[in-house]
Every structure is written in structure tokens, then in C-alpha cells.
Amino acid sequence: MKLFFIYFYFTVLGLLYIAALPISLLICLVKKYRRSVPSRFFLYKNPSFKDEKSVWFHACSYGEVTSLTPLIYALEGNNVNISVITKTGFDKACQICKGENVRFLPYEIFLPFWIKKQRTLVVTEAELWPMLFFTAKRRGIKTILINARISDRSYYRYKKFSWFYKILFSFVDEIYAQSQTDKKRLLSLGAHNIKVSGNIKSLLLPKVTKCYKANNIYKKVITLASTHIGEEAAILEQLSSVDLSNMLIIVAPRHPERFEAVHKLLQSWANTNGKTCGRFSKEGFNGQNDVLLCDTMGELINIYAVTDITILGGSFIEGVGGHNPLEPSAFNNSIVSGKFFFNQKELYSKVKGIVICDIKEIASTLSGKLPKTSTTHLENGGDIIKSILSEQKEIQ
What we know:
Blueprint: H1 2-27, H2 36-42, E1 55-58, H3 62-67, H4 69-74, E2 80-84, H5 87-96, E3 102-104, H6 111-114, E4 120-124, H7 130-138, E5 142-148, H8 152-160, H9 162-169, E6 174-177, H10 180-188, E7 194-196, E8 220-227, H11 231-239, E9 247-253, H12 259-272, E10 277-279, H13 280-283, E11 291-293, H14 300-304, E12 309-312, H15 326-329, E13 334-337, H16 345-348, E14 351-352, E15 355-356, H17 362-367, E16 374-375, H18 382-389
Parallel strand pairs: 1-2, 1-4, 2-3, 4-5, 5-6, 6-7, 8-9, 8-12, 9-11, 10-11, 12-13, 13-15
Antiparallel strand pairs: 14-16
């Protein structure tokens, strides 16, 4: 039954690949995908990992790769490979691992020919690609899923295809779930050998790489962090009715391809409200602007260190599920969040003092006294490290 499913699944993927070939070729011309699509769908400059003793991590994008940092550093002395889906994930992986050990994960039909023997495959969160796990097991690789979670809204979709996930999870040796709720949901989908380890993002204590001194210039710094389309305009509208005297507003969009569009929005808002607007990549943190676009990757932690109030994006619109509150909380920022943080429940539970409000209530929320946030228990990740380095186990 399993082999029949795999062959059928592979055939369907092959037909879809052929049908989408003209579109894939066109997408290669788009700047955002110029590196990732040729690598993933045409194996351009994307050779296999070859060291049989390597630990292979797979993550989707920037945030997931960042969360792997403490685990990778803890494996010092062991050869580590990283595969990713997005360009931002690729760039971040190259920062924490040798560039020659970083790859884009190929489209699934290539995996049976691309994957070579490795010691262990460690996959993060919801990167549930059947051919990835199946092929890894065929190569004798131990397979581990970490930071596994199933949100409230996703669970009902998963249940409709429980037969699919039962087959997929049969190729996964060990699973580390974020919470007991996630464990119960995974068990109901046919997963096995599950341990609750918390969210691995709580392993990572943010470290400042550059020190800024904004508080000598401004009374307060308000950062709109990891914002998505639709959030910047709505939040700025709210800020128009707030006393912003001697305040600096920093906006850090979640996706770099939106930098230009957000910059135009900020310029328009700044002109309307008698403010000046700059870009971090050009002016830096020089205190000469009232509104600043953070358009440089890797600077958000440094900005949190001088921020008083963080308005945490991805939580004011449906569909995203929120972002990591531990990072601003590590610097005792006051945090204002929307109510749509269903993908980050475990991390939110570790932060005291987050203020939850509707996007239309931001102005009134900022007019009151906001508490400083603090973090509670953080994980140590010891069980995951031991599992990664332990001997191969048979599928139960």
C-alpha cells in the first residue's frame, strides 16, 4: 500500500512538473526567484550532499533556519548540511554554516536521485514532503521532525487527509512536538514516537551585533516588526491620532521583496503628517528621520535592543498566525499584538505582559500605560541533540 501510494504520488508530481514547465521557466526571470527556482526545479548548481556522516537539517525560510542556530552550534565537530526553500533562508543558512554545505531542496521528483546517504535528517515544523522522508528512509537515514505543530485551523484540514499523513509519518522515526496539544493531534494523524520539547525558537537567546543609542535622540522608539501587506497602512492610520513628538517609528516588513512598496507608503504617510522618512540601508540609525524603513536583513534584533514598544506584525490579519515574541521580549519591549497568533501559541505562553488588541484599537492602546514584557521558562534542547547523534532506529 505504501509503495503504491509513493509511485502514484511520484507520477502525479511528474505530470504536474511537465504541465508547469513553461511557467517555471518564466518564474526564473523574476528577481525574487532567480536563484531558488533554477536550483529547485532544474538542479542548476545544486549538487547532492555527499558526506555519509553529516547531519542534514531542512527548514523552509529565514525564521526556521534562524531557530536552528543553537542546535547547529551545539553539534560543533559534526559536519552539518542545510537545505532550504527560500532565498532568505539560503542566505541565513550561509551565515551559520559553510556555503558549500547549503542547498535549495529540489522539487520532490528529483529527490530519489538527489538524496545520498547521511547520518540524520532533521526537518523543522510543517515541511512534510513525502518524497523527502520516503527517500531518506530508503537511503538508511534516521529521520526526525522537530518543532512540530498543528494549529487549530490547520488540524481540521489535516484530519480530512489523515490517510495521507498516516503514510507520511510512517517514514518519520522521531517527532518533537511543541505542546501536548500538538502531540495529541499528531497521534490522531498516525504519527508515533512523539516527545514534547517545546518550541526550539525558545532555545535561541537574541544577541546584538551592533549597538545603537536611539534613546539619546528620541523619547521613544516604536517598531512595527515583521509586518505583512495590509498591516502597515492600517497601523500607520492608527498612529496618525497618537502624539508622536520626538518619537521614532521603525517599520520592518517581513518580506524583503516588499521594501520598495512599503517605502512609498511610509514616504506618503510621513509627508501627510509632517514627518521625515529614511531608509536604514542608506541613512542608517543617525537620528535624522522620524520614520525609518528597516530594509536590511539581520538588523531587527539590534533594533529591538533600542525599542520601547514593538507592534508585532503577522497577528493583526487572518492567515499568517503571528511571529516570535521572544525576541522583543528579550529586551523588555512593551509588545502590542493582534489576536491572530495561532501559529505562535507556545511562544506567546512564555512571554508575560503582551497586550492583545484589535488593529483599530492600537491608538487607544498606545495612549495607556503599557507593561514591559519578560520571558518565563526556556527550553534546553538536550533531548533533541542526543537524538540527532544517536544510532539509527527502525520504523515502528
